[in-house]
Structure formats: structure tokens, C-alpha cells
Amino acid sequence: MSQADTVELSDEVQETFVLHNRLFQRYAINNITYFVPVDEDETLRLRIQHSVLTMMFDNRFIFPPINTPRRVLDCGFGTGEVRGIDITPHHHNPDEGLENLYLDIDDLNMPFQFPSNHFDLINSRLVAGGINSERWTGYVRDILRSLRPGGWVQMVEIDFNAQSDNGALADNSALRQWSQTYLYAMEQCKNPRAPRRLGGWLRNAGFTDVDERMIQLPMCAWSDNQREYDIGAANQENVRMLLSSLAIYPFTHYLSMSITEFHVLVAKARTEAANPALKTRLD
Ligand SMILES: C[S@@+](CC[C@H](N)C(=O)[O-])C[C@H]1O[C@@H](n2cnc3c(N)ncnc32)[C@H](O)[C@@H]1O
């Protein structure tokens, strides 16, 4: 927090409020930065999601060919990993601190204050819900400037447009309705299509050696392939939780959905997401 090269935020980042039985960070909500709760349920979900992605990536965290990075920046550190920036301190347990770990509370929508040519590796995973639409190109340029020559960035995002692998999910299903409503609510200020645009943005900013992969993430255990079946089984709880935590604030606050309508939609969407016959997936 007191590192000289980030803009320090005041104690207001600690302030929280309860809405619909979930705990939110006032700063992130007031500044239209990030709408997801900061309570223990969400911390748990991030840990489950992390283990799902770890399975998905065959126990690798970092794919660029970099052996002994000296300086690493983790954008949106969540439950914590090297030098991280996050708008909320709430998911991090200070007892897990390491001597060479600095976790700064800062907003990725603000221009980076880090020196140029500084980091060997920058990790940016699942921050699209908190990056303003018009910030993306500047964010990618800031990342490029902060990397030393030869440095790497790894970006991972999920497209929350729920699909069915066998076309069995009807357009009027609750899960499709959830997706369409989520994309609509988010695109008022964020870019829910960012996951599909990262490669283009990186190239336009001047990155070279850009490698893009689209990986399908099963929402429950339906695949004939054992590895994908196991990933889907592990992801089912993450999906159950995210259908509520990602959407509860945008749907009820920005789209004026009543909390009862919200719970009914989420309950139906959860049943569909967990139905192996529908072969649901996220890309
Ligand atoms: C879905 S979590 C992902 C956490 C971690 N990167 C991971 O992949 O497990 C998104 C994190 O990004 C943080 N975040 C979102 N928008 C942000 C912003 N504008 N500035 C800083 N942190 C942000 C959130 O507070 C949250 O901890």
C-alpha cells in the first residue's frame, strides 16, 4: 500500500456495505469499478475457480517461456499470488504474506505509475468485470510500457455467454437469459466481449509473438473425455456461485430486477447449468 509507485488510496477502500445479504466494497461500487461481492463466499468461489483453471491449465500457472522472472506484476491479485494490484483488500489474508510479496490497493483503470521497462512478467487474469470499456487499449499499452524488453504478459478472461455443446439449450432458457442480461448490463460500462479481443489489442499496442487460445470450459460434468469431465465436475460449484455473485448487483441495481425475480432466474439457470444433458460450457 505504501509503495511509492502506486497512487495511494485512502481508508475508504476498507468500507463495505451489505445488500441482499452480500457484502460489497463501497469504493468499487461508488466508482462503478467492480460489482462483485467481497465476502467469504466470493473468496471461496475465487479459490474454487482458481483450482478449476489450474486443472484446465494442467497445473501450470504461466505459459510464456520465462524461467526465472525477477519482477512479476499480478493485476487483480484476488486471493493473492507476487506483486499485485487490486481495488479490494478484502480477499487477501495478511497472514499469508511473504517477504517479497507486495500487494498494492490501486485501480487498474488509472494509468500505471510503475517505471518503464520494469517487470519481466505481468499476469492479468479475470479482471474484465472491472476494466472500463474505454480503458482497455490504455491498459494494454501501460502493460507493454511497464514490461522490460523481452518481457511477457499473460491475459486470461472468460466469456460469460453460456453455450450448449449440443445445441440443447433453448434461446428462452433461464441460463441464456442470464447470459444475455449479464452481457447487456455489463456493456453499459465494461466490455464483456473483451475475452475475444485481447489478442487484437495486444497486437495493436505493439506486442509481438502474440499467441491466442480459446479453451472451452464445461459448466458441469458432461464430457465423454475424462479430463474435461473432471474439470466440469470441479467447475459446477464455481458456476453455481458465480451465477449469483457476478450478477446480483448489476441485475438488481442497474436493471431494476427485483431480488425475488433475480433469485428465481438464478435458481433456474443453476439447474440448467448443472444438467449434463444440456452440455453447458463457457468459452
Ligand atoms: C474474478 S477476480 C480474479 C482474481 C485473480 N486474478 C484470479 O484469477 O483468481 C477479479 C479481481 O480483480 C479485482 N479488480 C477488478 N477490477 C479492478 C480494478 N479496476 N482495479 C484493481 N483491481 C480490480 C477484483 O477486486 C478481484 O479481486
Automatic annotation (TrEMBL):
Gene3D superfamilies: Vaccinia Virus protein VP39. One of its GO terms (molecular function) is methyltransferase activity. CDD domains: AdoMet_MTases. It holds the Pfam family Methyltransf_23. It comes from the Eukaryota. Belongs to the methyltransferase superfamily. LaeA methyltransferase family. This is Methyltransferase type 11 domain-containing protein. It comes from Xylaria multiplex.
